[in-house]
Design goal:
single chain; 27 strands; mainly beta
Length: 406
């Protein structure tokens, strides 16, 4: 699945740079708004999108309003479009940045092809901003790849998706996937405070130096085949998990390949993080060590931390661990990773933290990779060095006493 998403996104980059579409195949939202998507007069052709056009733009330099906000608040007359672009200077020369916003609170929109939010299209234009606010009972279905922050050789584009309430975002049709911060130094951001996301593979911080992707989830459900945080070539991905977030995936890869950097940050103890197959840090999707750097951090609340549940855990040479247990006053052990496989050991260890090493910020606890049934990662009470030495002396004295009595 990962290779198919990477191939799809490579094709997407080529399409942005090379494809040409006639005016008859384009449709532009023609008013600044906020204005109703489902009103024909708000489109440059005077007709609603119906899926027969090649591309639909909201906030575009090439046509319509350069700054535009479209509102979807109920069932659409025509719920399908071709390719969706929000905040775009593609399909024409650019003289200023575009800003496109869709506020979608009810009804369903189906993008049958690609979906790009914050996209330049290699037209040497300045930065563009695209935002999709999905709330209430709104549902967005992207038939292929949904990408935030894509293309361009001038200016840094930014694509943002905000999902809340009972909204649903689906990018799991066919080879569909979700890229948050795709390439060329652009930025992608996903903020989830509710709702449900269903996807094949999600990449946060995909390709190219300076590219950044950020996924903040504090509530709602995230379902995917896999989640990559920091994919390739000096891109940086960050995932921040807090609140009642519910993450269900097959694989989590933090820092995958080619000098990428990934951060997976967990705040508090009330989230759920379940990787039914692999949890890899600083390793690629087949578990091979790479030049990528992956960092996992835990910030405890008064009840502890949210442990990651996985079938198999492996750590590369550049896998890092950061913990802050200052709010957890208990002396209890702290479970970090619960491996559900029986007998399979943890592969590798966090950098500078071999078995038994005291972890900074842990309240003096030591790390163990053989906790529980022998393959869980936890922080446990460490025996202070003076105490350990005293125990050794007591044991030695007892042995000498027995020797004299003999």
């Amino acid at each position: 699945m990962l290779s198919r998403l990477t191939s799809s996104l490579t094709a997407c980059a080529l399409m942005l740079g090379l494809s040409s579409v006639s005016d008859a195949q384009l449709k532009f939202f023609d008013v600044a708004g906020p204005a109703d998507w489902d009103t024909a007069a708000n489109w440059d052709t005077g007709t609603l999108p119906d899926g027969t056009e090649e591309r639909v733009h909201v906030g575009a330099i090439a046509g319509g309003a350069a700054t535009a906000t479209a509102t979807i608040s109920g069932a659409l007359t025509n719920p399908s479009v071709g390719e969706l672009r929000i905040g775009s200077s593609s399909d024409g020369g650019a003289t200023a940045g575009a800003t496109g916003t869709v506020n979608h609170s009810a009804g369903t929109l189906n993008a049958n092809n690609w979906s790009f939010i914050g996209v330049d299209g290699n037209t040497s234009g300045p930065a563009n901003l695209g935002t999709y606010n999905l709330s209430g009972s709104g549902e967005l279905n992207s038939g292929s790849v949904l990408a935030l922050g894509v293309g361009g050789d001038m200016g840094l584009n930014k694509g943002v998706v905000n999902i809340s309430g009972d909204a649903v975002l689906n990018t799991n049709t066919g080879d569909g996937g979700f890229a948050i911060g795709w390439d060329l130094g652009n930025e992608g951001e996903l903020n989830q405070t509710g709702g449900t996301i269903n996807s094949n593979w999600v990449t946060v911080g995909a390709n190219s130096p300076g590219t950044t992707g950020t996924y903040n989830i504090s509530a709602g459900v995230f379902n995917a085949n896999g989640l990559t945080v920091g994919e390739n070539t000096e891109a940086t991905g960050t995932v921040n998990v807090s609140g009642t977030a519910d993450i269900n995936v097959q694989d989590i890869l933090v820092g995958r390949n080619d000098t990428a950097t990934g951060y997976f940050n967990i705040d508090g103890s009330t989230a759920t993080i379940d990787a039914s197959r692999n949890f890899f840090v600083g390793l690629n999707d087949v578990g091979a060590d790479t030049t990528a750097v992956g960092t996992v951090s835990y910030t405890a609340d008064a009840s502890g931390v949210t442990a990651i549940t996985a079938d198999t855990t492996s750590l590369g040479d550049d896998a890092n661990l950061i913990v802050d247990t200052s709010l957890f006053v208990s002396t209890a052990d702290i479970l970090l990773v619960n491996n559900t496989s029986i007998g399979g050991p943890v592969g590798g260890n966090f950098a500078g933290l071999p078995e038994g090493a005291v972890v900074p910020g842990s309240g003096g606890r030591a790390i163990t990779y053989v906790y529980g049934d022998g393959n869980d990662i936890a922080l446990v009470a460490a025996i202070p060095e003076p105490t350990a030495a005293l125990l050794c002396l007591v044991g030695l004295g007892a042995a000498l006493g027995r020797g004299r009595r003999a």
